[in-house]
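hiii so um. not sure if this is the right channel but i have a protein structure encoded as C-alpha cells and i wanna go backwards to a sequence. like what aa goes where. can anyone help
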C-alpha cells in the first residue's frame, strides 16, 4: 500500500513538505514501540536520508532504537560523516553493518529460477541474507530510507535492494553483482525490470515478507543552478511506491544526449568518493552516452585506492579492468576471484570493453598504479586547472576551443544516447 506520494519532474519539495509528507504516512500506519532506521551511507548524502532519519527521530523519539546505515560492501562511516549526514542524532543509536560476518540467511532463490531469467545456467543459488539485527522480531517497524536513481546492478536503486543488498551478506552481495555484470550493465541500468530486480523481488516475497518494512523513497533532481532538489517523496510497504518513484526518476534522472560524446569529463567529490569501487559510477552512468573511440576523463581528487578493503583492492590490481570475456575466463581457474564475485563484477563494470578510453586523474594513485589496472592516468592538478569544475556547467561546454560534455556528479543520474540505449535493450550475452 502507498501511504503517501507526491512528485513531478518540475516539483520542488521543501524540508517542511518532506517532513509533513512523512508524518502523514507515519500517522496512517499507527503507533510503533521499537523502530529501526536503515538509511544509506555517506556516499548517498544527497538522498536527503539524513534529514528523513532526523524526522523519524522527532516523530518517534525513544521508540527509534537503532539506526544502521546500509553499507553493503562500503567501508564504515566515520564519526565525522555520521555527524555531517545525521546531525544532532544520538551517536549511541548507530550500528555498523558487517557484511562479511554479521548476517543470517533466510532462504535461497533457486539457481533454476535465476537461470530461466537470463536464459543461461547462472551456476549459483542466491542466498537471502540480512543483518541479524533485522531478524527475530526485535522491531515492529523497519524504515528503509533512500533515493531511487538509475543503478548499474539493480536497474533502479533502493526499495528491497536497500535491505537485501545494503544489509546483505557476502554471498548475496557477490552473486547479485555478478548476475548484473554477466547479464550486462547496459541492459540493466535505468530499467526497473531486469533479472537482478526479479531475484530481489522473489526473495522479498518468499522469505523476507515477515520483516515489518516501510519504504521511504525520494527522487532527487537538479534545479537551473545545478543544485539538488527533492522532486518526489513516496512512502509505502510494497512495490507500488517503488514503481511510482522509478517512473519519476526515469523522467528526472535520465539525460538523453543529442549525439554521442567524444570527450566526457566527470567530477567526483573527494568527501564522497575515495575508491574506484565507488568512483567508477563515472563509467557506469555515462558509458551509454560516450562515442566509440571517445574518452572519459574522471576528475577524482579523493581517490586513494581501487577497492573498499585490502582484499578487494588486491584482486582489482591482480586482474585489472580487462573486459567481460577475459574476466569470465579468469574465473574458471582463479579461486580468489570466484570467492569474491562482486570484485569480478566490478572489473567487468569498470571496463569500456575497448570501446572508449578511460582516463583517471586521481588524488592519491600513481600513473603506474592506474596503468597497471588498465586505465589511463592524468595529473589531477593539471586536469583541474584545464577542466575547472567551478567554471563549467552541466552538459556541453567549450574548453580551449574543444567541445566537451561535463557531468558534475555521475552518481545522481544516467546519461545515454538514444541509439545505444535502444541497442542495449535487445542485446543478449551468453555466460
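sure thing!! here u go:
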Amino acid at each position: 500500500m502507498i501511504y503517501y506520494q507526491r512528485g513531478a519532474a518540475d516539483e520542488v519539495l521543501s524540508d517542511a513538505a518532506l517532513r509533513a509528507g512523512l508524518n502523514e504516512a507515519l500517522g496512517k500506519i499507527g503507533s510503533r514501540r521499537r523502530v529501526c532506521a536503515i538509511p544509506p551511507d555517506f556516499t548517498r548524502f544527497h538522498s536527503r536520508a539524513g534529514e528523513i532519519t532526523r524526522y523519524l527521530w522527532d516523530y518517534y523519539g525513544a521508540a527509534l532504537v537503532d539506526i544502521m546505515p546500509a553499507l553493503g560492501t562500503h567501508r564504515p562511516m566515520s564519526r565525522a560523516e555520521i555527524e555531517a549526514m545525521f546531525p544532532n542524532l544520538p551517536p549511541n543509536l548507530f550500528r555498523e553493518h558487517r557484511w562479511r560476518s554479521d548476517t543470517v540467511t533466510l532462504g535461497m532463490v533457486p539457481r533454476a529460477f535465476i537461470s530461466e531469467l537470463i536464459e543461461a545456467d547462472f551456476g549459483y543459488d542466491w542466498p537471502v541474507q540480512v543483518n541479524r539485527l533485522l531478524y527475530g522480531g526485535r522491531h515492529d517497524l523497519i524504515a528503509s530510507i533512500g533515493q531511487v536513481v538509475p543503478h548499474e546492478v539493480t536497474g533502479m536503486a533502493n526499495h528491497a535492494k536497500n535491505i537485501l543488498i545494503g544489509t546483505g551478506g557476502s554471498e548475496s552481495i557477490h552473486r547479485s553483482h555478478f548476475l548484473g555484470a554477466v547479464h550486462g550493465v547496459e541492459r540493466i541500468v535505468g530499467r526497473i525490470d531486469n533479472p537482478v530486480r526479479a531475484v530481489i523481488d522473489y526473495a522479498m516475497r518468499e522469505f523476507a515478507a515477515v520483516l515489518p518494512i516501510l519504504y521511504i523513497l525520494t527522487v532527487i533532481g537538479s534545479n537551473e543552478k545545478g543544485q539538488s532538489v527533492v522532486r518526489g517523496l513516496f512512502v509505502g510497504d510494497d512495490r507500488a511506491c517503488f514503481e511510482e518513484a522509478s517512473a519519476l526518476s526515469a523522467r528526472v534522472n535520465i539525460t538523453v544526449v543529442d549525439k554521442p560524446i567524444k570527450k566526457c569529463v566527470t567530477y567526483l567529490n573527494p568527501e564522497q568518493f575515495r575508491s574506484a569501487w565507488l568512483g567508477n559510477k563515472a563509467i557506469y552512468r555515462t558509458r551509454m552516452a560516450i562515442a566509440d573511440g571517445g574518452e572519459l576523463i574522471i576528475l577524482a581528487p579523493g581517490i586513494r585506492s581501487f577497492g573498499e578493503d585490502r582484499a578487494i583492492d588486491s584482486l582489482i590490481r591482480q586482474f585489472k579492468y580487462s573486459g567481460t570475456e577475459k574476466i569470465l575466463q579468469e574465473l574458471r581457474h582463479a579461486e580468489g576471484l570466484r570467492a569474491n564475485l562482486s570484485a569480478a563484477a566490478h572489473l567487468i563494470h569498470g571496463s569500456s570493453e575497448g570501446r572508449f578510453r578511460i582516463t583517471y586523474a586521481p588524488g592519491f594513485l600513481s600513473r603506474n598504479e592506474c596503468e597497471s589496472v588498465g586505465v589511463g592516468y592524468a595529473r589531477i592538478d593539471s586536469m583541474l586547472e584545464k577542466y575547472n569544475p567551478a567554471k563549467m556547467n552541466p552538459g556541453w561546454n567549450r574548453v580551449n576551443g574543444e567541445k566537451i560534455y561535463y557531468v558534475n556528479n555521475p552518481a545522481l543520474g544516467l546519461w545515454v544516447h538514444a541509439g545505444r540505449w535502444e541497442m542495449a535493450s535487445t542485446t543478449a550475452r551468453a555466460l
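oh and The chain has a mean pLDDT of 95.
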